[in-house]
Design brief:
Shape: globular
Number of strands: 10
């Protein structure tokens, strides 16, 4: 008797941060899903992960620890919405040609972002999935920490969170120090992060915080 492989071929949208890492970890526990690749948008000008500001060299180390390839989607700087959608449209077509069935995202509760992803994938036949959608972010943040996710804060929006949080570890102390207006997972863009160890990694990445950089109304922590 021939057994059919019913696992859905899935690409994971990988930001280098904690939410995408935890969504990926949840997918590893799903017997109906097979993540075959990661993909990440990269700022071509600075050779860093878009928004998170993480060096591509560290992104590649994450993929190596996971044991999956990562597709680098280069975007220009600055990048208009039309340029971004054109680049992503070509990537979606490529994924469709490779019989990818799902795109997975680490989004938590922002309906407009989810609706945008669903709209852009609607005609492709690729289904967007959201493994950690709707989970209470205070409990989710503690779940990540208690299960060994190791993360540093690489970017903050100083209009929403004080500069002192840049370069800090995402841990219980960090959560306890956040202003009440800040989401524990930074889902409103208050902060972004880089995961250097966790249950999805074979071994940790050794990383240190370098220079603090101000650019485009955000504050970034250089790392090496």
């Amino acid at each position: 008797m021939v057994m059919c492989n019913l696992k859905k071929k899935t690409l994971m949208s990988w930001s280098s941060g904690k939410d995408s890492a935890w969504a990926f970890y949840k997918l590893l526990q799903n017997p109906g899903i097979k993540v075959v690749d990661l993909f990440c948008t990269v700022n071509r000008e600075f050779n860093r992960v878009a928004m998170h500001g993480v060096r591509v060299a560290l992104l590649l180390q994450q993929a190596a620890r996971i044991g999956l390839p990562v597709e680098l989607i280069e975007i220009p700087y600055p990048c208009s919405n039309d340029e971004y959608e054109n680049i992503m449209g070509k990537f979606i077509e490529k994924a469709k040609d490779n019989t990818i069935e799902y795109f997975a995202f680490g989004d938590l509760f922002l309906e407009d972002i989810r609706n945008y992803r669903e709209q852009k994938l609607a005609s492709s036949g690729i289904k967007p999935i959201f493994p950690i959608w709707g989970l209470p972010t205070d409990a989710l943040a503690k779940e990540m920490i208690n299960n060994g996710l190791k993360t540093i804060i690489t970017c903050i929006d100083p209009k929403q969170i004080p500069q002192e949080f840049i370069g800090e570890e995402f841990n219980e102390k960090f959560l306890g120090s956040l202003p009440e207006s800040v989401d524990p997972c930074g889902e409103n863009g208050e902060f972004h992060s880089f995961v250097y160890d966790g249950p999805m990694f074979r071994n940790p990445i050794h990383v240190s915080v370098g220079d603090i950089i101000h650019r485009d109304n955000f504050i970034f922590a250089g790392e090496y």
